[in-house]
Amino acid sequence: MRFLLFVLLTPVLFAMACASGRAKQAGKSTPETPPDNPLLGEFETPFGVPPFDAIKPEHYEPAFEVAMERHAAEVDAIATSSQEPTFDNTVAALDYSGALLTRVARVFFNLHSADTSDELQAVAKTVAPKLSEHSDSILMNAELFARIQKIQDKKDDLGLGAEQQRLLKLYYDEFVRGGANLPPEKKAQLTDINRQLSVLSLEFEEHLLEENNTFVLVIEDEGDLAGLPESARSAAADAAGERGKEGAWVFTLHKPSLIPFLQYSEKRQLRQKMFEGYARRGDNGDARDNKEILAEIAKLRVERAHLLGYPTHAHYVLEDNMAKEPKQVYELLERLWKAALPVTKAEAKKLQSKIEKDGKDFQLEPWDWWYYAERVRQEEYDLSEEELRPYFVLENVQKGIFTVAGKLFGLEFVERTDLPVYHEDVGTYEVKDSDGSHLGIFYLDYHPRPGKRGGAWMNAFRSQRVEDGKKVTPVVSNVLNFSRPTGDKPALLSFEEVTTLFHEFGHALHGLLSDVTYPRLAGTSVPRDFVELPSQIMENWASEPEVLKLYAVHYETGETIPDELIEKIRKARHFNQGFETTEYLAASFLDMDWHTLESPELKDVDSFEKRSLDELGLIPEIVSRYRSTYFAHIFGGGYSAGYYSYIWAAVLDADAFQAFKENGDLFHPETAKAFREHVLSKGSTAEPMELYKRFRGAEPGIEPLLERRGLVTPAQSTN
User: Which residues contact 618 (CB under 8 A, 6 or more apart)?
Assistant: First the structure.
């Protein structure tokens, strides 16, 4: 949901950086750099950040062509070397190869998600299949794999260090999983499947972006705004003005517009229209319909799994994750489902009772849940989102997060106004360590726009590594979709948006604090079900009273959030957790069901989805957090058979945060140091559970998570 992974390129491409010199030493020439293309020369900017102000759409395609050709020459030099294969001249050389391609791809695909255009989308459609074929040509290079195989066969006699052993294992496994052992005809089939998948995933995302931008609810009668807070009305008036509809109010499917409408609008028919507009994205039988695309993606994934010797796509994916096999995932999801569903049914009953107390005679529907949940919360806890929002000024929350990072890890964030950016909304910061040394560059991109996909994520324009004995520092970004300032009001966040900001910042820290040697092992290059630990643990600090007082200041009065309001937040912490857990788990089951298919036959999407959720027992008052046709995580992103990762990591983060609580200090220096040393800095230098145990001393239990979500009492968890 919140972390962007590039699926057009395998880790072979994205982990490689800076070895053209080594290719030349092996006696192979590399293509010359065409003039006047800023992507193809060294970035002559402060800290070597991308020169966004000089890069134009027409630069990308030729840059990709040159970069792929150069990378192919580097790989050929490694594969055909007359020298006996060693770790350095083969595995390390491969990891450092493709520097130019990595650089071009990172800039392009980051902007393709955060600030796309018709021109960039056209480039993506052209280069995606070429990049897929280029990646396959490396993974299926028989000479190259033969060298890796020789090193693998004698690995125990080479005296390799821990990082070197890990890098060798990852590359060997990746080549095997990428088809290196397949006969020629099956390699050709696999290449064709990967090429098709690269294009289909792009089309899925493009359709979804168009759906998000196309739907609008235009209100011209002020009476239809009944119940909506001033913040929502003001934002809708601004949105109308941007569309030339002065005097009206426009609501969109972007979360800062959608959620307040569903929470507060008294007009049930309009809530239904908004909700169905959101829930039917990609499922309207028009040019933007995603059903055929996702069915074909699922079919091709089954075919690929079979080619590689796996019964299902999930088996293929999970072999490389902490879960290892579908059975483990289903067992976790089912245990949580059994705990959450009764709580959810009780919540639904309470909301239905509220409807009847209001003198209404309709049954609770999905478009009613947000509205009546907010009503019940106000009655039972005397707390509303709108009461909290004035305390959560975006700029203050950001300062609070920076302060938390300073208290935990000694980091300092210094704003820079001299760095090029890809959009005027983007802010830039130099990150310094406790000793004042430079750690990296951090971009922040907060607000929605037509060229930005929905959601929130972290990207890396450059990952950390050690090159020629010198540390290359990372350049990372957080991309989010929060409401803009309106009128004389600053940008004000909901508490959910506050936790989202803390979450994405955790991903950024994972990238910024990386301290490894090889690119393939750096930062967030870890299994999907471990990558969410650094992000989700940061959410814990967001609601702690000590931290709230650092950033929650009323934008008008300057008053720090009062203790009474903090106590209300604490008391309401379990409110609606059945709903939130159940709608998430439903999507996780749907993902797994799509990717445990054993037959590569096309499925009727709506029938498949209905059967999956009916068998699960999802109550009709709730819709899965993601329906198939807009489930970008699994059909447009890198989380296929991996959406469960958020709850898997939640088990880890609930247990990990206990380490701070047990020491009686949210910023306990030794605990923070251990988390940085064993988790944040280590990337993928060891198996994830081994890294976790180094930090915590033991594997986590599920009980802290169940308690935190109010799905079991402390007494029950000890039985």
Answer: 582, 586, 624
Q: What's residue 32's pLDDT?
A: 52
Count Cβ atoms within 10 A of the Cβ of residue 557 and give its class: 0-12 exposed, 13-18 middle, 19 or more buried: exposed
How far apart CA 267 and CA 269 sit, in angstroms, is 6
533, 656 contact by CB (below 8 A): yes
Residue 424 half-sphere exposure, CB side, CA atoms within 13 Å? Answer: 1
**Using one digit for the tens of pLDDT, what is the confidence trace for 224-248?**
999 999 999 999 999 999 999 999 9
Please enumerate in sequence order all residues whose Cβ is within 8 A of that of 594, keeping only pairs 6 or more positions apart, or say none: 298, 608, 628, 634, 640
Distance CA 161, CA 436 (A): 30
SS3 state at 461: strand
How far is Cα 8 from Cα 119, in angstroms, rounded to an integer?
18
- Options 504, 532, 539, 609, the catalytic residue: 504
Q: How far apart are CA 357 and CA 314, in angstroms?
A: 47
pLDDT digits (tens, 9 = 90+) for 387-443: 999 999 999 999 999 999 999 999 999 999 999 999 999 999 999 999 999 999 999
Residue tagged 């800095």 (tokens)? 681
CATH superfamily of this structure's domain 326-389+575-714? Neurolysin, domain 3 (1.10.1370.10)
Q: Name the more confident of 718 and 148.
A: 148
386 tagged catalytic: no
403-421 in b/e form (b: 16+ CB < 10 A) is ebbebbbbbebeeeeebbb
Task: Give the model's pLDDT for residue 1.
Answer: 25
Total residues belonging to the chain: 719
Residue whose C-alpha is closest to residue 534's, from 545, 543, 546, 524: 524
For residue 678 the two structure tokens come to 């064993």
**476-522: pLDDT as tens digits:** 999 999 999 988 899 999 999 999 999 999 999 999 999 999 999 99
What are the sequence ranges of the domains in the chain?
215-279, 326-389+575-714
Decide if pLDDT at 66 tops 70: yes
